[in-house]
Amino acid sequence: MNTYWSFRKMSMERNHSFQHHPKAFHVLGPRHISSPGWRELISSSWKDESYKRIVMACFVQAVYLLELDRQENRNIETALASQWWTPFKYKLVEVLVDERDGSIFAAVLEWDQAAALADFIPIRPTGAPKSVLAIRGTLLRNPTIRRDIEDDLRYLTWESLKGSLRFDRVLTGIKSIINIQGSKNVAITGHSLGAGFALEV
Question: Where on the tree of life does the source sit, at the highest rank (predicted)?
């Protein structure tokens, strides 16, 4: 019979394994980068190209983890993806899903004004995009491997991703974001196959 204490022990063990997961932000994430604070009002970290690259890489890692969280049925308490955007004061507003296999291949992140205000950042730092479309690369796991490899082969064969269902979704997504936020407030980033999509749209 499960008592309160046995349930509590199982919960603590689950949280312990979650905290030490090899893809957790504090384990795999960048070591020498700080979360935005009130100093951003004086000197924005987003003006530093190295900082921008690191944050964008974190956002792409978040998209890989959104799909892995989905595949491994992680709940809100144990999901890993949000750890990769929260420190930078962004929030998830949309995921792009391949309807053929249900996999998440891209995500739209947006500046989280409420989280920023909680850390005494009343305005978005100079250079920080209002919205980011992040696209992951090939994930060699079922069920997404088939569609990922199809797009890899498309690119190797025709040196283009046009005609891909995912390309159409990314193009529609970026146009929609730009219509709302304006092109100067939007960034697009990707890794591997995702970088191919980002470059072509």
Answer: Eukaryota
pLDDT (tens digit per residue) in 95-142: 999 999 999 999 999 999 999 999 889 999 999 999 999 999 999 998
Please tell me whether the peptide bond between 125 and the residue prior to it is cis, using omega within 30 degrees of 0. no
CA end-to-end distance (rounded Å), the chain: 57
H-run or E-run covering 177? helix 165-181
Q: Are 179 and 192 in contact (CB under 8 A)?
A: no
Task: List phi, psi (to 5°) of 181.
Answer: -100, -20
Q: Can you say whether the dihedral through the CA atoms of 72, 78, 84, 88 is positive or negative?
A: positive
Q: How far apart are alpha carbons 152 and 7 in whole angstroms?
A: 45
Q: Cα(2)–Cα(126) distance, rounded to whole angstroms?
A: 53
Gap between the Cα atoms of 201 and 187, Å rounded: 12
pTM (two decimals): 0.88
